[in-house]
C-alpha cells in the first residue's frame, strides 16, 4: 500500500470526500551457491496467516507500543507479521532512492524482528520505495534505468543482509513497482544479488493489475499479489455475494499458478471499515460512513474463497493499528481490524482462543 497514495487520499478526504451508500551499509554475508532459476526453490513456503505492521517514522519499530502490537497480532491466530522499511525518491524519473526521517531505523527494525520472534511470529520483510512529493510508486519510470537499478540493488541487498542476520523467514524483493517489473534482465541481476546475501524464500509483491506482466517470477519462490480487486459496484455486507465475486479471480489465479509452477501469496489484502470499501479496496477514503460490517464480510469472503486451495500460499492483511500520533485516518474508519468485527472473523478462521 503506497504511503503517498495514503496521504494524498487523506488530504482529498479532508476536502470533503463523501460517498453515501537506514543508516548502515549491507551486512556483508558470505555469498552462497546460486539456485536453479528455472524452477521454484526447494525451500517450503508455508501457508501464511499474516498481518502487516508498517512503519511511517524512524523510531516506530523501537517504540514502547511495538511489543503490545505484536502480542495483539499473535492473539488473532496470526503466525506471521510483515514489516515495511521504506526509502524515498522525489520524482518518478529519479535515478536513486534514499533514507528519510520516515525510514525505519535499522536498530529499530532489528529490535522489532526480535520481539516478533519472541511473540512466536515468523517475519516477512517487505521493503518499499515511495515518493516524497505524491504519486504512486507504480508510476516510477527512471530516466536512467541502469543507474536506478544500481541504486535499487544497494537498497534491497542492504535489507537482504539484515534479514539474514536477524533470522527473517521470508523476504520480498520489491513492492508494486509496475513501471519497472517488465524488465526481467535488470530484476534478474537484483534478485541474484539478494540470493547471495539471503538464503530464505523470496517473493515480489505485485499489484493485482500488475502480476501478469511481471517478467521474473521464474527467479523467485512464490508469486506475491497485493489483492485489492474491487468486488462490488456498491456497498455490501453480504459475504456470499463477495465470495461469488472472488470465483472468476480465483480461477484466473489458479491457472496462472499452474503455468508458473509457483504458489500465490497475497502479500497484501485489506479493507477500510468504511461503507463501500469492497468497491475500492485500495482506497483509504471511500466514504466517511462506518463500514465495520462490510469490512468483516470482506474478510470472511476472502478466507472462505481461498482457504485450503493447494496453489494459495496464504494472506498478509493490510494492516494493524497505526502508531500513536501518526494515524491520518481515524481508527474506526481505517484498515485495521483491531477491535472490530473483522478481528472476530480472523480469530474464527485462524483458530485463536
TrEMBL record:
Signal peptide annotation: 1-25
Keywords carried by this UniProt record: Signal
Domain of life of the source: Bacteria
Region (Disordered): 23-58
Pfam families: GH113
The protein's name: Glycosyl hydrolase family 53
Annotated organism of origin: Streptomyces triculaminicus
